Amino acid sequence: MWAVRCMCAFSALAQLNLGIAYATWGAVGTVATPVAGYFLYRQKITKIGLFALALIIVSIVVLNLYG
């Protein structure tokens, strides 16, 4: 399974900018972690936390569109 993931990542990087791909991957993990905590462990996300997650999502969308 690890080899398949690596092959997919390498084939994607042949067409994508490495910096943008890495930033997107990091942002997905950063956003997914508190969302998973909310649904799996009933952890609370504050309004400031939601705002921060929204900023991360918007920044990655802008980076992918104009970066």
Main sheet properties: none
Residue share in helix? over 70%
Number of strands: 0
Order of helices and strands: HHH
The amount of beta strand, in percent, is under 5%
N-to-C span = 31 Å
Helix-and-strand structural type: mainly alpha
Instruction: Write down the overall mean pLDDT.
Output: 92
Unreliable runs? none
List the total number of helices.
Answer: 3
Gross geometry:
flat
Describe this structure in words.
It is built from three helices and no strands. The chain is an all-alpha fold. It is flat, with a radius of gyration of 15 Å. 1% of the residues are buried.
Question: Main attributes?
Answer:
flat, 84% helix, mainly alpha, 67 residues, 3 helices
Summarize the model shown:
This protein has helices spanning 2-13, 18-41, 47-66. With 67 residues, the protein is mainly alpha-helical.
Secondary structure blueprint with pairings:
Blueprint: H1 2-13, H2 18-41, H3 47-66
Helix pairs in contact: 2-3
